[in-house]
């Protein structure tokens, strides 16, 4: 019974997250963009700024 309740709670969280990302005027897309740019900067700093293309 507890696992079923946990599954429902996770499902509700997923639906809420998707709602925030697609709602007009929300800050969701900005959040995803800034997280992506931050992760890219972190990877570039950790690898010395290299990329996938050969130089």
Number of helices: 2
| DSSP, total strands | 0
Sheet-strand content, in percent, reads under 5%
Low-confidence stretches: none
What structural class do helix, strand and pairing data support? mainly alpha
Query: H/E order of the elements?
Result: HH
Shape: elongated
- The Rg value, from CA coordinates, equals 18 Å
| Average of the residue pLDDT scores | 83
How far is it from the N-terminal to the C-terminal residue, by CA? 57 Å
Largest sheet data: none
Percent of residues in helices: over 70%
Layout of SSEs?
Elements: H1 2-22, H2 28-46
Question: What does this protein look like?
Answer:
The structure is a single chain. The protein is an all-alpha fold and 55 residues long. It has helices spanning 2-22, 28-46.
């Amino acid at each position: 019974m507890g696992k079923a309740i946990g599954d429902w709670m996770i499902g509700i969280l997923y639906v809420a997250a998707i709602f925030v990302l697609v709602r007009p005027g929300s800050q969701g897309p900005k959040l995803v963009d800034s997280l992506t740019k931050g992760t890219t900067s972190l990877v570039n700093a950790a690898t010395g700024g290299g990329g996938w293309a050969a130089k």
